[in-house]
Amino acid sequence: MMNPSVITKLEGTLLIFKSTFPYFMLVSLEAGSPLRALLLLLISPLLWFLESICLENASVHLMIFFSLVGLKVSDVKSVAKAVLPRFFLENIQENTYKVFPSCGGKKYVSSSLPRIMIEPFLREYLSSDFVIGTELKTLSGFSLGLVASPGLMTGDSQYETISKILGDDRKFDLWLGNEPETDSSVFFCQEQYILPADSSTTTCLQRKDYPKPLIFHDGRLVARPTPLDSLAVFLWLPLGVFLAVSRFLIGRIMPYNYGLMVAATTGMKIRAKLPSEESHTSEKHAPYSRCICGSCDPSQFGALNTLYVCSHRTLIDPVILSSTLKRNVMAVTYSLSKISEILAPIRTVRLSRDRVKDGYLMRKLLKKSDLVVCPEGTTCREPYLLRFSPLFSEIAESIVPVAVSAKGSMFYGTTVRGYKALDSFFFLMNPSPHYHLEFLEKISRASRCETSGRSSYEIANLAQKMIGQALGFECTNLTRREKYRILAGNDGICSE
Questions:
Q1: Which end of the chain is less packed: N or C, by CB atoms within 10 Å?
Q2: Residue 234, domain member (yes or no)
Q3: Do 308 and 416 reside in the same domain of the chain?
Q4: Helix (H) / strand (E) containing 110
Q5: Where does the signal peptide begin and end (predicted)?
Q6: Quick one: 385 and 335 in the same domain?
Q7: What is the pLDDT of residues 201-246, one digit of tens each?
Q8: Is 480 found in the same domain as 411?
Q9: CA torsion sign, 212 to 214 to 218 to 219?
């Protein structure tokens, strides 16, 4: 059969787990509020009971209502594009995925989930030609939490619904599933391909086999929010808030020598491979004979301190680096909330995104103190490094790349759509947040622009490569602007 058209289900076939609760929970939390998510969690016993007595349709109707009623359709679509794909990819069944793309004809996927929640993922990552999901009733751009015609895409009635959508004479060449379907499916499919049902052979698709690299995603939750995991998150919140406040006060008040030890008693782990004694001290170097930014005379600055160039995982990267070195350093940022600037235990200076002005400012700061810069310009959660801005290689004499990685088991400390002022707070709320820093070999004077003929871009790429190899991350040419355009549809720049 040449290029057969294929139809399959999302839950239980493309995805390993049939439960749709985690995806409704994510929409409730990210497009709605914690209160809405808590309400959905409270009715989860009722949902389980309805499913256990074969009233799956009623369960889905309740989840649609409680998670979507009153939400902006645009907000739901944003969550579907920025948050849900990561959780779908982690739940893709490897056996099904190997078969599904091999069908060269049209690919159809049906699901009881609302179409606006699944369409971005299925079209972008699985190249589905037609997504058959539950339609929602809306009013003036807001969801009413009710199912629209032709009805809910679940149970045996879904075949009648598909018939209404695609036409009564619509035929498919192949049905892809885990078990033989009812006789009603014969009306639609000439053949059925039954995948192995042995749970021992059911494995998730590995990251290296993803149809498209997952580099950017948003959302606060790390783990898939099943009812039990969601319950654990809500029960943890009071203690998490206490720990976050305690960890903040420790970093703000206590001396470096004692702060690290006290922070460790709260469960926070900081591991560092420190630089050699030569680079551990704040060395002074003769300035460049010229400033590449072209706007200042380097001789007016005198000797400069060390510039630490870090990979960017959370907003507190510079604070952790300063604590590890046990001395104050300054940090330059492209964007930081006023609250974060006020609460930061180290001095932070905001750059203007004007290359000439920023180069001049950074050289002035390097005269006063060691400086930390994250040349990616934004955080990246996955094992990838974004493109490094070359500005740092044009204004500093002593450059020390620092490979920084951070992990949290419950919350992400970064966001695109949420309140950025709470980013650090969320990371510190994790039961055992982990930081690892590795100070790499200093980029020597012999490898710099003036003596080796390398451009500033080549130096920036060298620092990116060194950090990428130390972390086992892949280097990319993606930028901050591309991240925000993908996740939020804007350039990520707020007007003052």
A1: C
A2: yes
A3: yes
A4: strand 107-114
A5: none
A6: yes
A7: 578 888 888 988 999 999 999 999 999 999 999 999 999 999 999 9
A8: yes
A9: positive
Does 31 lie in the same domain as 117? yes
Provide the whole-model pTM.
0.87
What residues does 332 pair with on adjacent strands?
349, 373
Same domain, 243 and 374: yes
* 180 and 106 inside one domain: yes
Residues 229-241: b if buried by 16+ CB within 10 A, e if exposed: ebeebeebeeebe
Q: Is 297 part of a structural domain of the chain?
A: no
Q: Which helix (H) or strand (E) holds 366?
A: helix 355-368
Determine the structural domain holding residue 27 and report its residue range: 6-198
Kindly tell me the burial class for residue 179, based on how many C-beta atoms sit within 10 Å of its own C-beta (0-12, 13-18, 19 or more): exposed
Tokens read off for 148: 């629209």
Task: Give pLDDT tens digits for 457-473.
Answer: 889 999 999 999 999 99
d(CA 147, CA 337): 40
DSSP for 317-333, written as a single string: HHHHHHHHHTS--EEEE
Helix %, strand %, coil % of the chain (to 5) = 45, 20, 35
**Residue 1, domain member (yes or no):** no
Q: What Å distances lie between residue 244 and 185, 263, 265, 266, 378, CA to CA? A: 54, 11, 13, 9, 23
Q: Are 62 and 56 in contact (CB under 8 A)?
A: no
Cβ atoms within 10 A of the Cβ of 214, count?
Answer: 17
Each residue's pLDDT tens digit, 69-126: 999 999 999 999 999 999 999 999 888 888 777 766 788 888 889 999 999 999 999 8
Whether residue 242 is found in the same domain as residue 155: no
CATH number at residue 171: 3.40.50
